[in-house]
Structures are given as structure tokens and as C-alpha cells.
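Exercise 7 asks you to align residues with C-alpha cells for two separate proteins.
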Amino acid sequence: MVLVSLINVSSNQVQNIRKDLVKVGAELVIGKNTVITTALKLRASPLDKNMEDFEFFNRFGAPKPELNNLKEHLVGKFGMVFSNLSVFDLKPIIASNKRAAVAKVGVTSTVDVTIPTGSTGMDPS
């Protein structure tokens, strides 16, 4: 599984990435952060035998406490890529869909912008 950030990624780009990943047998899953966090928490901790759906959840095997390490990375818009390929094989597929975008109000730049001191030729008013 590979976590990917989807900040500043358009829905059209996500659709194109999904199409390219399916061709190599991978799948991009995007869901609500709270649902994903709840599912990981449920999978990482031992099940309560008195819970309503114990038999259903118990079919998935023993708890996996290492899933708790993902919690700190589940911030903002993100997706999970599931595949048998290595991250080194997946990265070029995802990066090939990278597109330049126009600046929008309130969006943080991903590159440093330096404006030299001096006259801009614009009136300060």
C-alpha cells in the first residue's frame, strides 16, 4: 500500500491516474478520512467479543497494531494505492499525470517565490 497526497489534484487527474493504475493491476482508493481512520483503528486493535459484528470482523484475522503508524499521515486529501508492484514502479505512473496549474487564491505555493527589492512600476495605492 502506498499513501498519496491529493492536495491540489483535480478530479480529472485522479480519474486519469486511476485508469493508468488499473492497467498495471493497481487500485487507487479514496474515502472519507473519518471512515478510513475508524477502519484502521478497528483493524489495529483487538476486537471486543461482545461487539455486535464480532463474527464478521473476526474473519479478517489477528489485529495489526502496525497500522497505528499510518494515523499521523492521514491528514488532508489523500488516497491509498493497493498493488503488488513496488513504489518505484508506481511512482512514474502517478507522476506522469502531473500537470501545471494556475495559481488560485488561498493555495500555498509548492515552490519558493522571490520578488527582488526595487521599483515595481506600480502605484502603492
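Second protein for Exercise 7:
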Amino acid sequence: MESNIEQGVEMLEEFDHAGLHCYVFRVNDHYCGYVEVPRGHEFDRVDYDDLGYIDVHGGITFGQESDGVWTFGWDAAHGGDVCDLPQRYNKIASPNRSLDWAIEETKKLANQLNNLPVNDNDKVFNVLWDDNVVGTMVACGVRDAILKLELRLHGNDTSTTENEIRVHLPYGVFVDYRIEEVD
């Protein structure tokens, strides 16, 4: 990813976090954070709408190939966002929209894309199907993990119990997933 200052795009930070390559850009008067996932990664070539809930400012607003690598991004260009960048309209900067804040939001996205805890209360859970691990996720508890899995399966008819989710498929077929905390 490159800067294009004439078009109002400037790379401010480039770093690695949680095993993924990250960037923070200034795009016009706001921050954007991007995280690259390598080929073969669980989310390589996955539409960001299919990721389910990702806890990053404003949600993920970008997901596509960039320079041959699948990249996800977020931005601080939502209503009420004012960053501490030079402003065209002389707005008062919001104290929590600094470059350090943008870097932390980008790290938070990288953690979630690699299923690493984001908050102190987070735990890692395995998603099992027929006693085989088919994925992992981070959540603050079993119920939260079930809800996040339901979001990842959006569009499917589901029913849940305490630590299981049943996905109802056409013709009376169903798939049961179980959630277990990783020690």
C-alpha cells in the first residue's frame, strides 16, 4: 500500500501485529487502518460482510485485494468522528481520535482476524463439528461465542442451546456445532 498525497492519502504507520501486516493511513481528514491476511489464511478472500461481528471502530468498511494481498480495513469517517489531523473546516479535534488510538484500533482488528483475545475478559473457543475442530473464535464467554457464530452463519436458520448451535439446511438437513473453551 502506498501514499498518494496529491489525492489526500498518506501512510502514517506501518507495522506487524499478531502475525499480520498493518497500516494506518490519513485519507483526507480521517484515519483508516488496514490489516493484510496472507494467502491460505482463514479469512483470505472472504467478504467482510461474512466475517460476522468484528469489534473495531465503525466496523469493517473495506475488504478486498490490494497489491495482491487480501486486506481488511476500518475508518474513522463516521458521524461524530473528528480526528487530530489538520482540518479543512477548523473542527475541534476529539481527544480519543489520535494516531495512537488509530494504531490501537488497527491492532484490535489484527487480533480478531487471528482469533487472539482483544480484551482481558476474552477467551479462545474451538468450534467443533462431529468432534472435529473446524475453527476458533474469541469471545468473553460461551454464550457470546454462540452469538458470534450465529452472526457468522447469518442468513441460515439456527437454533441454540447452552453451548451448541444447530444450523437448519434445506430438505430437513441440519448441522450441529459445539463450542468449547480452549485451556
